[in-house]
Amino acid sequence: xxxxxxxxxxxxxxxxxxxxxxxxxxxxxxxxxxxxxxxxxxxxxxxxxxxxxxxxxxxxxxxxxxxxxxxxxxxxxxxxxxxxxxxxxxxxxxxxxxxxxxxxxxxxxxxxxxxxxxxxxxxxxxxxxxxxxxxxxxxxxxxxxxxxxxxxxxxxxxxxxxxxxxxxxxxxxxxxxxxxxxxxxxxxxxxxxxxxxxxxxxxxxxxxxxxxxxxxxxxxxxxxxxxxxxxxxxxxxxxxxxxxxxxxxxxxxxxxxxxxxxxxxxxxxxxxxxxxxxxxxxxxxxxxxxxxxxxxxxxxxxxxxxxxxxxxxxxxxxxxxxxxxxxxxxxxxxxxxxxxxxxxxxxxxxxxxxxxxxxxxx
Length: 362
What we know:
With about 350 residues, the chain is an alpha+beta fold. The chain has 13 helices and 15 strands.
């Protein structure tokens, strides 16, 4: 039997842990290239949320993928470690939300913590990053997590932002390719979840200034009353809700946390807010409806979406698809109760229709 000694220990340097066990970082190679795209788009959405970027685009050219945004550009100045911040984020596994510690930080590939550019660098056979910052363009080139051409000044530029061009490493991904249809669908969804940002794929662009209302409006067929579309923030939780009552039984509620599909506390808060609004308007009638069948009674006639973004969301289980933060429940419930209550107080026809659902049990 071989002796277990310190010589048996293997220390992995740089980004070798990602290359050795890619599944731990990107969830497997079958859709791993897609995950790399979302790591980059997440960085762009981060900058949008703090008011530093307005657009991002994905271009697919054969095996080569290019992600561009108009953000401030990753810092290129030397650090105390003797390397630029840009080189550090491209060659080092690092903790912390972002290189500049801004919040909120979106991990838009559900189920993984997100390691950003490090994963893209480690798993690309070729990587070229251009940064336009302070009126000048800088470029660095890498392959499989190692610098092949150091950071250099390419000259003046009137543009701004970051451009990441990478070729996924076939040593890692084999014959797996990026699914353009899935990328398109997700970019469109993200544009609705983050109203105001323009997300593009090749020559196509998605922009939904009215946010989730677009998704609800597209799904609703036989509408009853006007839609409800509200945004708010409470105790650090940003909330967006869109609701549309429908006469046919086609109801569906979709929940998101930081853009990832998730059920849980925020969806529960939505229903608590609806109950509260109904009881505030017609307390003598609706208080009696607070039984286990309340949600089953109204759900078939409601199309809605609720999206919360917050620092430090907590989930039940490894799939991260059930939000447990009570602050999300409270924030959504308060907003919906107040705004739906205001809508119902001014719309007697919608009030009567909802009461009819209750009295006739659907």
